[in-house]
Amino acid sequence: MKHLLKMLDLSTEEIIEILNLADQLKYELKHGIPHPHLKGKTLGMIFQKASTRTRVSFETGMYQLGGYPLFLSSNDLQIGRGEPVQDTARVLSRYLDGIMIRTFEQKEVEDLAQYGSIPIINGLTDFCHPCQVLADLMTIREFKGSFDGLKMCFIGDGNNMANSLIVGCLKVGMSVSIACPDDYQPPKEILDFAKTYGDKFEMTNSPMQAAKGADVLITDVWASMGQEGEAEKRKKAFAGYQINDELMAQANADAMVLHCLPAHREEEITEKVFEAHANEIFEEAENRLHAQKAVMVKLMAN
Ligand code: CP
Ligand code: NVA
């Protein structure tokens, strides 16, 4: 494993190794056991979109590992004025030991990896959000004990989160059911991958159908970063694609609810369901820290 660009690139074994290391690093942090695996290393963090969790968890995580994180806003980098990714990648590879990037196009992340010579970590693109889904898988295993026989149901937009969840959950052996409006389905690349899992994957436009017998229910915002101009149109398209009490009644009684955050209460999830599952959702947010530390150690430690 040289980079973390998308879940499609990871084998099941690599995912499980990351989750096991994440559990260990979480234990060490909670018990005050130092773990300076990245002493003297630097991580550049390029942000072309806003972030609370990704920025703070990477920055803190790098510090806890003994390394140094540099926050690089695209407003201040020459990349924001049109310097090609190919050149940025080759320059930054001379100074840094790794790069985390949050941007729009997946191609930009893939290009950084192709032209640079250091590990690249995808901190969210329009196509996928692998760091979030590694934290989600860590949280599911933490609460449920294992992935065996579990069904994950995603309700809403066939977006970056849906894409990474479909791939990640299928790879670790879960069944996946996704409910989205016809015009907001995941891209063909993801659906083609999912179809190779036969009846372990289901896509429908009925949230009630998708939620039946689910062990984990997950949703995300209806308008992602960059889609703010379509917010009103999307509110209409996604009416009914909400995690609420009626939907929860279809799921297993002990079903968990996850949300990558930020959440829009009374849109994709009701306040009541959100607060009833806040312990899971905020453990999920915390697990960003541990899962990403594991990714950095895997990619950047000698
Ligand atoms: N879930 C997530 O990636 O949050 P941020 O946008 O705050 O980083
Ligand atoms: N789908 C959301 C996820 C935010 C963490 C977005 O891209 O804005």
UniProtKB/TrEMBL annotation:
L-ornithine binds at N160, D220, S224, M225. Residues 148-297 form the Aspartate/ornithine carbamoyltransferase Asp/Orn-binding domain. It holds the Pfam family OTCace. InterPro entries: Asp/Orn_carbamoyltranf_P-bd, Asp/Orn_carbamoylTrfase, Asp/Orn_carbamoylTrfase_sf, Asp_carbamoyltransf_Asp/Orn-bd, Orn/put_carbamltrans, OTCase_ArgI. Coiled coil: none annotated. PROSITE patterns: CARBAMOYLTRANSFERASE. It catalyses: carbamoyl phosphate + L-ornithine = L-citrulline + phosphate + H(+). Carbamoyl phosphate binds at S51, T52, R53, T54, Q78, R102, H129, P130, C131, Q132, C260, L261, R288. The keyword Cell division does not apply. GO terms for molecular function: amino acid binding; ornithine carbamoyltransferase activity. It comes from the Bacteria. Belongs to the aspartate/ornithine carbamoyltransferase superfamily. OTCase family. Reversibly catalyzes the transfer of the carbamoyl group from carbamoyl phosphate (CP) to the N(epsilon) atom of ornithine (ORN) to produce L-citrulline. This is Ornithine carbamoyltransferase. It comes from Ruminococcus flavefaciens.
